[in-house]
Amino acid sequence: MLFDWVYGLFSNDMAIDLGTATTLTYVKGRGIVAHEPSVVAVQKKGSTKRVVAVGKEAKEMLGRTPGSITAIRPMKDGVIADFEVTEAMMRHFINRAHNRQTLVKPRIVICVPSGITEVEKRAVKDSALAAGAREVFLIEEPMAAAIGAGLPITEPGGNMVVDIGGGTAEVAVISLAGIVACKSIRVGGDKIDEAIVRHVKRKYNLLIGERTAERIKIQIGTAAPTRNFMTMEVKGRDLVGGIPKTIVVDSEEIREAVSEPVAAIVEAVRLVLEAAPPELCADIVDKGIVLTGGGSQLRNLDVLLSDETGLPCFVCDEPEFAVVLGTGAVLDELDLLREVALQ
Ligand SMILES: Nc1ncnc2c1ncn2[C@@H]1O[C@H](COP(=O)(O)OP(=O)(O)OP(=O)(O)O)[C@@H](O)[C@H]1O
């Protein structure tokens, strides 16, 4: 306890996986210190906004807030959609990580999607500086994911990683600490949830919220046909009668419902394989493709990717932590950080 407190006074460098769905923070020497939904509840009074809750507490409020309070997801499709609220969220996580007991402002490494524009890069850096960082480094999500999954990225061999988050899917081939071929698409877990909402609306005339769709995906969703036929009761609002109603959905119809966003991810993998140099492709044939990110846990996604590419595919251990652990790992290796950080 005392050690933690004394350590926090001086060594406060931290890593942030600023995700569309989840924000994870890592403090050097302490590991992951926060794992919370990227949601902020804001109360509007005239032109001013007051943050009333951040993270889990704010997510509980999504779709259930009274008029003056809005629960906002400030990151959309992997990038900042609301600067002011993102800054408030980062400030909350930075303060919480250090219990406001630090003497020195932290050096912060933040991971961002690989397709990010110069303007978006600037916005993330400015938000972190305004939220209390001393120095900010950005690293690309697939690079962080590959480091976090334990791939030997500094060696001269091809490593392929597919990181599927809430807002984006990032596919990259990495060798000698550099991204050789990559593709970032704005399709991830959120688009899969939206496809489920649309399906239930079209087939059953039932309106369900995004949290219910996410539960369906996690409980019975599958990317490829499964022998284990599953069903689930779902509650929503009947669009015809306007009253609450319960229906039963099954894994096969959900597989069909999510096939479009899933096919977009498969296509991105195919395009990156086509763009990668042949020598590196040969390495990937041997080593296979590593899947990271919360979205990679969609049942049988590894099976589908393996069938479609003919290559071995594996989901890494604790895939939702790969990016933050990789971002955190470079805090310990400043030479590697300077090599992989975006300019
Ligand atoms: N068991 C599961 N099956 C399918 N999807 C899952 C499962 N668990 C979590 N997810 C999905 O993973 C996504 C979140 O993943 P993650 O936390 O890696 O994303 P993120 O880092 O916030 O997003 P991004 O990288 O796009 O900014 C959500 O869409 C969530 O629904």
From TrEMBL:
InterPro entries: ATPase_NBD (IPR043129), MreB (IPR004753), MreB_MamK-like (IPR056546). The keyword Metal-binding does not apply. Transmembrane segments: none annotated. GO terms for molecular function: ATP binding. It is found in: Cytoplasm. The keyword Nucleotidyltransferase does not apply. ATP binds at residues 166-168, 214-217. Pfam families: MreB_Mbl. Its main location: cytoplasm. Keywords: ATP-binding, Cell shape, Cytoplasm, Nucleotide-binding. GO terms for biological process: cell morphogenesis; regulation of cell shape. One of its GO terms (cellular component) is cytoplasm. HAMAP family: MreB (MF_02207). Forms polymers. Forms membrane-associated dynamic filaments that are essential for cell shape determination. Acts by regulating cell wall synthesis and cell elongation, and thus cell shape. A feedback loop between cell geometry and MreB localization may maintain elongated cell shape by targeting cell wall growth to regions of negative cell wall curvature. Belongs to the FtsA/MreB family. This is Cell shape-determining protein MreB.
